[in-house]
Amino acid sequence: MSEPAPPWARHLEPGSDPSSIDLLAAGTLPRAWVAHWRSLPDRVVLADRSRRRWRGSELLERTELVARRLRGAGIEPGARVVLAGPTSIAYVVAHVALLRAGLVVVPVNPASTRGELESIMRASQPRVAIIADDTMRQWAAEIDPGVLTTSEEVGIDDGPPTPLDVAGPDDPALLPCTSGTTGVPKGVPLTHGNLLASAEGLRIAWRWRPSDRLVLCLPLFHMHGMGVGLHGTLLTGASAVLHDRFDPDEVLDAATEATMFFGVPTMYARLAGAAGLDRLGNLRLCVSGSAPLSAELHQRIADRSGQVVLERYGMTETVMLTSNPHDGERRPGTVGFPLPGVDLRLNPDTDEIEVRGPNVFAGYLDQPDANAVAFTADGWFRTGDVGSFDTDGYLRIIGRSKELIISGGYNVYPREVEDVIRSHPAVVDAAVAGTPSPEWGEVVTAFVELGSEVDDAELLAWIAERVSPYKRPRIVHRLDALPRNPLGKVVRAELRPPG
């Protein structure tokens, strides 16, 4: 009797053999990228809004030059390098050069404050800081005078020829720092193998082809822009048009010459409000992630453009984990099935999502206590997200375990209530949190952005018809805008009543 196909086999093209899938066949991402550029040196790989184009041969030459400069300055493989700058070809060159040299990229938001930069540098202990902004570069020099600071162009003396692309799958490649709920940065070491496995899983699941052209507006310091958009494009031998800002009209114009667009719900909401949304239908694939896309917005885009947005799920510690199917039904409100190579289960007691696979990191940097909590005894990573499967096996994210509201002894997950509130025609977006109460412990509180006027009592009555009594908000706060991070995800710690 043959073994049953793994859940991730749903992402394979018909006739594919799951046993033949080798997510690490290329060894590392840089080796795969270099192989593409050497075999097709005249192929355009990157372009920007100014229509400047870079071919494979140019990327090969420029990344080798920057890598040699860093190695010539005495920066040895395994050293950490802060990288901060806007989405640009110069940023991509620096990023690729660091990986080719065997260095570890510490991606930093270019809009970080001095205090935020200092926290990340203290946690990561970099040898070099490559920063586009003059003021931020000066901060880095003041925070640690022993760090070599330079711009994205890495304008230091050329180094001698040196072996490149020698890092192996188990060597560190990326060290993003995540603060989670504590506000204290934790380093997340990701190996070359972790990054390759995730990018290869997406290449398989999304039918990524060398002929694809991606409109990439996402910031490259974040996993969505870097680990999904950039790494996937270069691994496939495809091309990308880099936008250093999101402009709905520019995206819709670019859609006439592209095949893919990756965005966050805030971007899709702005696209849905722009003239010419029908042009989004020219693309073969639109992907949303980093925050939940409401079923109402999903349907509005489908009705007006014919484009059925595909939602996926991932996190810094694992890169990508699940995706709605490319060929099957893309079910609103769900994140689909595990990607190739990913094993996923729900904790039988808490419904917390637990995962393992070649994409999953091995543990936080110098955080033994955090690691003891983050991993189960049998080696599965606890994501902190609570989920459920529907009758067809689609995964739905209910909420974060640490965001749980306990009201009158009942457990309330904000995501469930938020999805209902967002479906009201007057609501642009919503976030739900708990407000301390001597009677209930916590009361469910809704923070809403409104697109049109609605009375609080009317809104609460409308919600009450759609959720169980213990989940119903008792307080509503109207905000001009919910507090968000650069990718549009609501920052719950910053939710405050107006005034």
Write a concise synopsis of the structure shown.
With 499 residues, this protein is α/β, with parallel strands linked by helices. It contains 13 helices and 26 strands.
Description of the structure:
The chain has 13 helices and 26 strands. It starts with 28 loop residues before the first helix and ends in a 21-residue tail after the last strand. It has helices at residues 29-39, 56-72, 89-100, 114-124, 134-143, 192-205, 223-236, 248-254, 265-272, 295-305, 368-374, 414-422, 456-464; strands at 44-48, 53-55, 80-84, 104-107, 128-131, 148-150, 172-174, 177-178, 186-187, 190-191, 213-216, 239-242, 260-263, 285-288, 310-315, 319-323, 337-338, 343-346, 352-356, 381-389, 395-400, 405-407, 410-412, 427-437, 441-450, 475-478. The chain is α/β, with parallel strands linked by helices and 499 residues long. The model has no long low-confidence stretch (mean pLDDT 92).
